[in-house]
Automatic annotation (TrEMBL):
Entries under SMART domains matching the protein: AAA
Organism of derivation: Jannaschia ovalis
Name the UniProt record assigns to this protein: AAA family ATPase
Record region (Disordered): 279-300
Domain of life assignment: Bacteria
Xref: PANTHER family: GENERAL SECRETION PATHWAY PROTEIN A-RELATED (PTHR35894), PHOSPHORIBULOKINASE _ URIDINE KINASE FAMILY (PTHR35894:SF1)
The AAA+ ATPase domain, residue ranges: 48-190
Pfam families: AAA_22
Amino acid sequence: MADVEDLYRAQYGMDGRPFGVLADAELSYCGPGVVRAHAALEYGLMTGAPFIVLTGDAGTGKTSLLLRIMADADPAQRVVLMSGLRQGTGSVLPWVLQALGEDIAADAAPTELFTRLQDALIAEYAAGRRMVLVVDEAQSLSTAALDELRILSNINTAADQLLQVVLSGHSLLRDRLRAPELLGLAQRVGVWAALPPLSRAALADYVAARLAAVGGAEDLFEPAALSLIHSVTSGLPRSVNQLCEMTMIFALSETAPTIGAALVQQVLEQDMFLAPLAAAPDRPSGPATRPGRLRLASGA
């Protein structure tokens, strides 16, 4: 993408891509909804809540917020992120241990894995740290896997919680946790946080912040263009990024100092953007046809 970045630099004076679609803690937007969710997560971590739940529609920026939480983690916390686990993958113990950087033998017995996790948590506690396990896309976990996480949260001392679990996922996650069989887990949730889509005003601030972060003009997009973008994307940051970037690519051949609604409309008319569907109730997925894959496991 170096050539595109050179064009951005030449035409807009930017030193990077303001609207990349990958989650990025450095470019995450701190609007009202994000600030509230961030404060709720920090409160849960500070108070030692056994479980913290973060929900939001796909594309609202949950992963970016989680990466920010990890980047800003207190030295007294070791935060690990586990993502990619799906229904039908069996026990979560191997995945948790792999997220901690442990090597797992294929034939390891569950009792051995549990003992290794317990020893790891005790070692972290002895070093003055609490383990925080962040589970992304948690709505995809089976009921058995979610209940197993509840059991793992029982590893504690008389006074301190050795393991905190942050469950992040779509709105279905809240519905899943209302099920009678997960009542024990729901009762241990100390904080419920949610990320809403961007309002029209927040979208303008979001776009301006992303542009400013790479040295661009905050008013590059005209108000009419922002209104059209909000209407088409429903205020979902990931979709906003996609449409804004495609519009900027179209604008590279233009000499106008700002981007108007007509240019956004060109992108839409040429089918260069797929608008998100209206949010619909999620449904639990069926058993996985192949083992899940750990997309990201990192420790601090």
